[in-house]
Amino acid sequence: MSTKRTVAVEEKKGLRNTRNLILVGVMMAVGIVLRLCAGMIAIGNMHPNFLIATYCLSIFIIRPNIKEAAVIGFISGCISQIGTSMAWLGLGSETIGAVAMFLLISIPMPKVVKPLICTFVATCISGFAFVGLAALTYANPMPMAQFVSMATVTLVTALLNMIIVSVLSIPVNKVMGN
Questions:
Q1: pLDDT in tens, 78-94
Q2: What span, in angstroms and rounded, lies between the C-alpha atoms of 96 and 140?
Q3: CB 146 within 8 A of CB 138
Q4: Cβ neighbours of residue 70 under 8 Å, at least 6 residues apart?
Q5: How far apart are CA 126 and CA 176, in angstroms?
Q6: Sites in the chain below the pLDDT cut of 70
Q7: Which of 28, 130, 16 is CA-nearest to residue 75?
Q8: CA 49, CA 80: separation in Å to the nearest integer?
Q9: Sign of CA dihedral 126, 130, 131, 132
Q10: Interior angle at CA 82, CA 145 and CA 69, nearest 5
Q11: Among positive and negative, which fits the CA dihedral 15, 21, 25, 26?
């Protein structure tokens, strides 16, 4: 009697899966469009960075490994160079934010609040990393008014990103079959 032969197919995770790679590309494209449109939303002559929302959503959905999350953040940092007044800071701050998102999604918490909390905290980490790098490189010492303005932008962006990712994670998860 012959035995039934089965082929085990291991689903690739993270950026090794073509579908996930396409999702990250689409999310980055959406982030670019939102970033360019964000010029209409100015707080203290600074604009929110919606690229953070798109990489947070991507990381939340595809669950990359830490190196892949860092690459997603670095690419987002490269994209953030478009129209920035503080060149190169986004490379570090977006990479830090993406790695933070990776670490945060591994913490057990209720599924309903996970995108809210992880995105808010990751955005704050990225934003305050940017503020810290700006204080070290562009404004040393940073005037209190400038710090307050940049911190306000960070917190408002974190709240917006928290809502965006929470709302979009449901349909994107369904589309991705998760």
A1: 998 887 778 899 999 99
A2: 21
A3: no
A4: 95, 98, 99, 102
A5: 26
A6: 1-2, 5-12, 39, 41-48, 178
A7: 28
A8: 8
A9: positive
A10: 90
A11: negative
